[in-house]
Design a protein that fits this description.
The structure is a single chain. About 70% of the residues lie in helices and about 5% in strands. It is mainly alpha-helical. The chain has one domain.
Length: about 350
């Protein structure tokens, strides 16, 4: 990897780590479910108007939007609204990586290597450590909600991967079939969550609460930071961050690019410490180190290169049978699954 591309990887990690500060700024003004719907709605409208729909099965696109969009952000924003520290949230979401490996093994009968099993055990030990610390010093509910958000992200990873595989197979099947980019799939995923999440907000938060908060965002003291946070999430966290990540994934194997994602919680925790004064306990930091170590351990190992029949989710790249695939959308990335054997798909 060139020094320029290393700098791009560090830049993406910086953008995504600071994304959690933007989320916190938005939640200080908007109700959580409405804010989650709003951040997708802002992207979905131009996507519907200007971006062609990807040629993938609707069921996988819907499940991708439900898992990654609705479930992940409903629980994440709810957790942060309920008191989950900003930096710790950026760390706990890394648990989506071992969750995705487990879901792939259970639902798709993916082979899990011994190295991945060790990584999962270490990451789970880290989650237990953080849970024990949260139970001793604060409410356990925000942590559990964040873990539910990570599970939603894992479900979205599975659906995104299957959609990409189906799109690649459609391309191979006929000369007129168009090749689908992961970026287009990610953009169309944002079309799924807005209406269900607006309905959820209307039921749980009130039909006018969110819209009233949007109306006062230009006049209240906490409204302007919330709007700036929304712009950051959309423009820098999602479009710029995911776009740059896709570029890197098109140039290098996933195993080379994906470790940069482990810098995201480092940036998130440091930024939250500096800007918000959140000081994680030593036990939480130890648990976080175990989570990152487990994810990194499960992501590395020997691999055999294969060609275009494979279908990585994070971007068009050469990947490896049994090696990691990187999924990266909206400010976070996870090394999640062995590349599928085309004969089994």
């Amino acid at each position: 990897m060139t020094n320029r591309d290393r700098l791009i990887g560090i830049t993406v990690a910086l953008l995504w780590g600071l994304n959690f500060l933007a989320i916190r700024a938005g939640l200080d003004h908007f109700p959580p479910f409405f804010f989650a719907a709003l951040r997708f709605l802002v992207i979905a409208i131009p996507v519907v108007l200007f971006v062609p729909r990807p040629n993938v099965p609707v069921r996988w696109l819907l499940l991708y939007g439900i898992g990654f969009g609705i479930l992940q952000f409903t629980f994440l924003f709810w957790a942060m609204h309920a008191g989950m520290p900003t930096g710790l949230a950026s760390l706990v979401l890394q648990s989506s990586a071992p969750m995705t490996v487990l879901l792939g093994a259970l639902l798709l009968r993916e082979r899990v290597s011994r190295r991945q099993v060790v990584g999962i055990v270490v990451a789970v030990a880290g989650m237990v450590t953080i849970g024990w610390d949260r139970f001793a010093h604060a409410s356990l509910l925000p942590l559990l909600l964040t873990l539910c958000g990570a599970l939603g992200w894992a479900v979205g990873n599975i659906a995104s991967r299957q959609a990409t595989i189906a799109g690649r197979q459609a391309t191979i099947a006929g000369p007129r079939a168009r090749s689908e980019s992961p970026m287009r799939l990610m953009l169309w995923m944002t079309v799924i969550p807005p209406l269900p999440m607006l309905a959820l907000s209307a039921v749980l938060e009130g039909p006018t609460v969110g819209w009233s908060a949007l109306g006062t965002a230009f006049t209240t003291t906490d409204g302007l930071p919330a709007l700036i946070g929304l712009v950051y999430i959309v423009a820098l966290g999602t479009i710029a961050g995911s776009g740059l990540w896709t570029v890197l994934m098109s140039r290098y194997p996933a195993s080379t690019v994906a470790p940069f994602s482990l810098l995201v919680p480092v940036v998130g925790i440091a930024a939250s410490w500096i800007v918000l004064g959140e000081r994680p306990t030593p036990l939480s930091l130890c648990g976080g180190a175990l989570v990152v170590a487990g994810c990194l351990h499960g992501a590395t190992g020997s691999r055999t290169r294969v060609g275009a029949a494979s279908a990585p989710v994070g971007g068009p790249t050469d990947v490896a049978v049994g090696g990691p695939t990187s999924v990266a959308v909206d400010g976070r990335a996870a090394v999640v699954l062995p590349t599928p054997d085309p004969a089994r798909v």
